[in-house]
Write a structure and sequence with these properties.
Distance between the termini of chain C: 53 Å
Strand content of chain C: under 5%
Radius of gyration of chain C: 19 Å
CATH class of the largest domain in chain B: Mainly Alpha
Number of helices of chain B: 9
Strand order of the largest sheet of chain B: 2-1-5-3-4
CATH topology of the largest domain in chain B: Fumarate Reductase Iron-sulfur Protein, Chain B, domain 2
Order of helices and strands of chain B: EEHEEEEEHHHHHHHH
Helix content of chain C: over 70%
Helix content of chain B: 25-40%
Oligomer: heterotrimer
Number of helices of chain C: 8
CATH class of chain C: Mainly Alpha
Largest sheet of chain B: 5 strands, mixed
Chains: A alpha+beta (667), B alpha+beta (248), C mainly alpha (220)
Number of domains of chain C: 1
Largest interface: A-B, 85 and 81 residues
Largest sheet of chain C: none
Distance between the termini of chain B: 60 Å
Number of domains of chain B: 2
CATH superfamily of chain C: Fumarate reductase/succinate dehydrogenase, transmembrane subunit
Shape of chain C: globular
Number of strands of chain B: 7
Strand content of chain B: 5-15%
Radius of gyration of chain B: 20 Å
Structural class of chain C: mainly alpha
CATH architecture of the largest domain in chain B: Orthogonal Bundle
Order of helices and strands of chain C: HHHHHHHH
Structural class of chain B: alpha+beta
Number of strands of chain C: 0
Chain lengths: 667, 248, 220
């Protein structure tokens, strides 16, 4: 019997959430005023949770390392947000969204959670529109939709290529309303350094004021972690520079189990690495795959000639191009899920068909979309016999209207005009499906410590579908957590104010200060980035898009020795009592150096390929992922036990009552 | 590329700052401006000196953290980009580059090139929202059609990233472009109408209290805005404000 | 009203309205002045009307004076506030990259115009007041033309006038179009309107310059 109780409510799938809401305990409004909740992270999940909790009447304190909640990295999400509204009348439903998400996640997610997500998805759109989020609309004034990978319907709502920005600003505006009412106290430029447990319950955090260096105690009745994912363990990723695992990892060290750390999403359409100076990678939205066609040359000589600059991609005729996604997956074509598209790109590049000097790039081509839109536009504007040049001009305008900001971004970075020559793209680390293990109520294994959004191990299984992260973040924050947390807090109405003046806080504060002292006074050989880059290389090469037992075993040891070297030889300049970016980075990298090892351990133990976790030993003859449902149909939740490699495995069996497990096929 | 950098260094909010010269070599055109600063900082750390503090986060032009005045212009010489999207190919070998923090009384320096922009947050606390509960009991999203042009204009105003380039570029350190973008986003949507009067008054009042200057329509903000927020928004806010004031 | 002018937006609005009023006045002033080039009699007749009509003297003139005083006092207030809004300046500030010289230097063009107004009052308004109210001369409807022309015999005064009008031009090149933005008029007509304001900003001062030079040359 597993120690993990997922607390999935009884009853039919589509009634679980409704019944659960009817049965959980509530806190009356007068008592809510006496209860404090800490929310760490102010992205979509944290921002929306903070706003809703405050609106319900709790006293909320939010923490973010950015100078404003509005800058959390949710802001960078480009493409859209899914919702089973069926506005397009293409047969969408809650069940279909549920089904697509479970299938897309390669059957490694919890049915009940995913169904709830699909159920509340429509409400998110209603909510956001009411808040004044300016989604894209059609000429009739109704909301527009687009398609994303891994699905056969159009259910993605969007605001050009800045959907995350608009949704986050919506959540932030809801926060503003509560800040203005005095119900939220926002601690910006504050970083959570540790979680404080009293009598086994989460009762507060230790935070560092990043301007003064002051170490502060903040007590509360419950702590919500919405601190995002850990993609930066790879150094290069599409995450923000500051995105880190510290809050989640500190909670893990205090007893929260960490689930499925090896499930990482490598996004297929990012701008390729240009050199050693590179600090981060830039995503080109998945929505581009609606209209862009991915290809490499059919002949290796052509690929080499293009890479060497002797040939231009536009020189190649249609017959000389290999649209490998359309070839391999005719049903879904360029819109296969992210893991599939990424691996296919890697396969072609590994075989020597890469089209840039590093050999790690494929083309994303808009030429046929430009022609198609141009023709359509000419036709609808009554121009029945347009010339080729007119078609292309109109087509470019149409493409610009859809993707203008992305094309501009691409040109700024690469100095190439994607209207004239195909984009070059390559997969990059983007999202982490793994995270803190939570039950149906989003509570971690520490009572009173909740995790929402990307920080939890979430609803995406082993692979997340496009436009689902925004949906999950807002679902957790607006509609799930504010209710489920009440069930827990209803036991705290007589507790009274939590004191930060206890031995537990003393100890936690001392631990934090000691750690900072150790970092400030280490050997002083190498910069923090030196270690971070080394860690990133190990992770990318051995725990990246394709993994094998040998590489993972090497990674385990390499990360361990890198970590030991870090603590002996890292060099942190400046002092601890001012703004000090080096110290901030050092604290984060120290945690990545532990997480990385657990990551490798998890990947090594999972002897199957599923979703974003691809083990070279486990693949079909055609090179597709080979799942092992008999032995690995479970969530791997790791309990901290000192060294990351000694972490103890707990399994939560995944039960599929409503979906038949199949080999995932997008052919 | 070899460059001379003249960078504002200031220990803390109350310390006296000064421009300090640095030489940097091996800069490549494909580097972003911030990656160039990373290289400088890596050098400084190697020498045991304190690296230059600057705000940055997403490095893809959307979070609005980066905030440098480069050669006298916010986000540098290129248009419609943030500093993280400025690439070194915009400079030449041997150039001297001035790097200063955004300057305004309402943006006090925290350290080196980092400024405190919480004044922007307070303007938004004052009224940058629609008072709708977030618990989900709303009407269907499609029950109120919105004219596409209005929705698009609202979106264009809402793309403001709150970086402060408008204030930095303005000779008067005025925050009208920022404030008007926020006002406009809601003014253009039916959802924002109910509270329109109070919103514009509260936000303008807060903007004034923060100590930003007056707009004198030089248009510098619009030119330097990385998101191309239009001056039309300021005109709209002026209209909204005078209409609100005449209502009382 | 007091509370209204407290806010930045209202100040801007008031600045624009007073500016637009003065621009309107300029057109009227130029029209009358131009008659001095065409016909001395007509000029005398119009000047006599303006100088003696009760409505003009008792109503429009005070409004005009208020407009002028308000515009420059508010201009100073705004300038001081704006300078305070950036307590620490830039070592390097490249205003030319994003704005016109005119828009950034309204205070200077305005100061030149203010200095000119002092000269202009000294030249015309003060003698007029002395003539009418101190010395209590009986009204002579034919005196205006000769008095005006006499002023432009001095090359220095003519030159000062010309320079001042060039600054007026610079002031108007930004100010006229800017007023519309300030009162919230920015729409599809703005582009056309901008063309008109630019033309106006150039033609009106040129008109005044033409008159000054015309009379100076005539006096040679």
């Amino acid at each position: 019997m597993s120690v993990l109780d997922s607390k999935i409510p009884k009853g039919p799938l589509d009634e679980k959430w409704k019944n659960h809401k009817n049965n959980i305990n509530l806190v009356n409004p007068a008592n809510k005023r006496n209860i404090d909740v800490i929310v760490v992270g102010t992205g979509l999940a944290g921002g929306s949770a903070a706003a809703t909790l405050a609106e319900l009447g709790y006293n909320v304190k939010t923490f973010c390392y950015q100078d404003s909640p509005r800058r959390a990295h949710s802001i960078a999400a480009q493409g859209g947000i899914n919702a089973a509204k069926n506005y397009q009348g293409d047969g969408d439903s809650n069940y279909r969204l549920f089904y697509d998400t479970v299938k897309g996640g390669d059957y490694r997610s919890r049915e009940a959670n995913v169904y709830r997500l699909a159920e509340v998805s429509g409400n998110i759109i209603d909510q956001c529109v009411a808040q004044g989020v300016p989604f894209a609309r059609e000429y009739g004034g109704l909301l527009d939709n687009r398609s994303f990978g891994g699905v056969l319907v159009s259910r993605t709502f969007y605001a050009k290529g800045q959907t995350g920005q608009q949704l986050l600003l919506g959540a932030y505006s809801a926060m503003n309303r509560q800040i203005n009412r005095g119900k939220i106290q926002a601690f910006n430029r504050h970083e959570m350094m540790d979680l404080v447990l009293v009598d086994g319950k989460a009762r507060g955090i230790i935070a560092r004021d990043m301007i003064t260096g002051e170490i502060q105690r903040h007590a509360a009745h419950a702590v919500v972690l919405a601190s995002g994912g850990y993609g930066n363990v790879f150094f290069l990723s599409t995450n923000a520079m500051g995105s880190n695992v510290m809050a989640a990892w500190r909670a893990h060290r205090r007893g929260a189990y960490f689930a499925n750390p090896c499930y990482t999403q490598i996004h297929p359409t990012c701008i390729p690495v240009s050199g050693d100076h590179q600090s981060k990678l830039t995503l080109m939205s998945e929505s581009l795959r609606n209209d862009g066609r991915i290809w490499v040359p059919k002949k290796k000589e052509d690929a080499e000639a293009i890479a060497a600059g002797k040939k231009k991609p536009t020189d190649l005729s249609e017959e000389e191009r290999d649209y490998y996604l359309e070839r391999r997956y005719p049903a879904f074509g360029n819109l296969v899920p992210r893991d599939v598209a990424s691996r296919a790109a890697k396969e072609r590049c590994d075989a020597g068909f890469g089209v840039n000097k590093t050999g790690e790039a494929v083309f994303l081509d808009f030429a046929s979309a430009i022609k198609r839109y141009g023709k359509e536009k000419a036709f609808t504007s009554g121009h029945k016999n347009p010339t080729e040049a007119e078609i292309i001009k109109l087509g470019k305008e149409a493409v610009e209207a859809k993707y203008g900001n992305l094309f501009q971004m691409y040109e700024k970075i690469t100095d190439q005009n994607p209207y004239e020559t195909p984009m070059m793209i390559y997969p990059a680390v983007h999202y982490t499906m793994g995270g803190l293990w939570v039950d149906y109520n989003l509570q971690t294994t520490i009572p009173g410590c909740y995790a929402a959004g990307e920080a939890n191990f979430s609803d995406h299984g082993a692979n997340r579908l496009g436009a689902s992260a925004l949906m999950q973040g807002l679902a957790d924050g607006y509609f799930v957590l504010p209710y489920t947390i009440g069930d827990y807090l209803s036991n705290d109405i007589r507790t009274g104010e939590i004191s930060a003046d206890t031995p537990e806080f003393d100890q936690a504060e001392k631990d934090v200060k000691d750690k900072i002292d150790r970092l400030m006074n280490a050997g002083g050989q190498h910069s923090v980035d030196y270690y971070h880059k080394k860690l990133g290389k190990i992770m990318w090469n051995k725990c990246g898009m394709a993994r094998n037992a040998k590489g993972l075993e090497e990674a385990l040891d390499e990360i361990k020795s890198l970590r030991e070297d870090f603590w002996k030889n890292v060099k942190v300049t400046g002092t601890a009592n001012t703004k000090n970016a080096e110290l901030e980075k050092a604290g984060r990298v120290a945690d990545f150096l532990e997480l990385g090892e657990l990551f490798a351990k998890d990947a090594l133990h999972r002897n199957e390929s599923c979703g974003g976790h691809f083990r070279e030993e486990y693949q079909t003859e055609e090179g597709e992922a080979l799942r092992d449902d008999e032995n690995y149909k479970y969530v791997a939740a790791w309990e901290y036990a000192g060294n990351p490699r000694d972490a103890k495995l707990h399994k939560e069996d995944l039960i599929f009552d409503n979906i038949e497990l199949k080999t995932r096929s997008y052919k | 590329m070899k460059l001379t950098l003249k960078i504002w260094r200031q220990e803390s909010a109350n310390a006296k700052g000064k421009m300090v010269d640095y030489q940097i070599d091996g800069v490549e055109g494909d580097m972003s401006f911030l990656e160039m600063l990373d290289v400088l900082n890596e050098d400084l750390v190697a020498k045991g000196e304190e690296p230059v503090e600057f705000d940055h986060d997403c490095r893809e032009g959307i979070c609005g953290s980066c905030s440098l005045q480069i050669n006298g212009e916010p986000h540098g010489p290129d248009k419609l980009i943030t500093t993280c999207q400025l690439h070194m190919r915009s400079f030449n070998d041997g150039d001297t580059i001035y790097i200063e923090p955004f300057r305004a009384k309402a943006f006090p320096v925290i350290k080196d090139l980092i400024v405190d922009r919480t004044s922007f947050d307070r303007i938004q606390h004052a009224g940058g929202y629609v008072s709708v509960n977030t618990s989900g009991n709303t009407i269907d999203a499609n029950s109120i059609p919105v004219n596409k042009h209005d929705a698009d204009d609202s979106f264009n105003a809402a793309t403001c990233i709150g970086c402060g380039a408008c204030v930095a570029a303005c000779k008067n350190a005025s925050a009208m472009l920022f404030t008007s973008a926020k006002v406009s986003q809601y003014a253009l949507l039916p959802q924002g109408q109910v509270e329109a009067t109070e919103r514009v008054q509260a936000m303008v009042r807060q903007m004034d209290e923060e100590g930003f200057g007056n707009c004198s329509n030089t248009g510098a903000c619009e030119i330097e805005c990385p998101k191309g927020i239009s001056l039309e928004n300021i005109a709209r806010m002026n209209r909204e404000y005078m209409a609100a004031t005449s209502k009382g | 009203m007091g509370g209204l002018i407290q806010s930045s937006t209202a100040r801007k609005f008031a600045m624009a309205i007073s500016g637009l009023f003065l621009i309107l006045f300029l057109a009227q002033h130029l029209t009358i002045n131009l008659t001095s080039v065409i016909s001395a009699d007509l000029f005398n007749e119009l000047s006599h009307f303006m100088g003696t009509n009760f409505l003009v003297q008792a109503l429009l003139q005070p409004v005009l004076i208020f407009g002028v005083v308000f515009h420059f006092v508010m201009g100073f207030i705004l300038e001081i506030r704006n300078r305070n809004a950036r307590d620490v300046g830039y070592v390097k500030f490249k205003g030319s990259a994003n704005s016109s010289w005119m828009s950034r230097n309204m205070i200077y063009s305005g100061l030149v115009i203010l200095a000119f107004l002092a000269l202009h009052f000294y030249d015309f308004w003060v003698p007029e007041l002395v003539h009418k109210y101190v010395q209590s001369h009986p009204e002579d409807p034919t005196r205006y033309y000769a008095e005006t022309v006499a002023k432009f015999e001095s090359p220095i005064r003519t030159l000062l006038y010309v320079i001042s009008f060039i600054f007026l031009m610079l002031h108007l090149l930004h100010g006229f179009a800017s007023s519309f933005q300030s009162i919230g008029f920015n729409n599809k007509y703005s582009k056309g309107l901008q063309g008109f304001t630019k033309a106006y900003a150039v033609i009106v001062p040129l008109g005044f310059i033409f008159i000054a030079i015309f009379h100076y040359i005539n006096s040679l």
